[in-house]
Amino acid sequence: xxxxxxxxxxxxxxxxxxxxxxxxxxxxxxxxxxxxxxxxxxxxxxxxxxxxxxxxxxxxxxxxxxxxxxxxxxxxxxxxxxxxxxxxxxxxxxxxxxxxxxxxxxxxxxxxxxxxxxxxxxxxxxxxxxxxx
Length: 133
Prior knowledge:
Radius of gyration: 42 Å
Helix content: 55-70%
Number of strands: 0
Strand content: under 5%
Structural class: mainly alpha
Distance between the termini: 146 Å
Order of helices and strands: HHH
Shape: rod-shaped
Number of helices: 3
């Protein structure tokens, strides 16, 4: 029997190393600017969160509403917006109705007083002949 030939093992190809960018003055500046940009972005984000109130920072209902509005849950955010709009509309309508009622009552009272005053003048004994103004 002929001897089986041994298979030659394939040599593993070496991975080419990526050339490291030499640290020149320009790359250092670029990196520093990038770091500063990231830091500024984070600081501004924190400031915005503090102003808006994420819920923990600002107590009460407004903070919770802001939290919902700024979350990724669009359904909840739209529900909050609708509720706020409805409440505002109801408050405005109530205020307008109250103002109109007050104005009507005041005008009616003034008219009644003027009528009474006019009747009293016409009944005055010295002005019997003169017609009411």
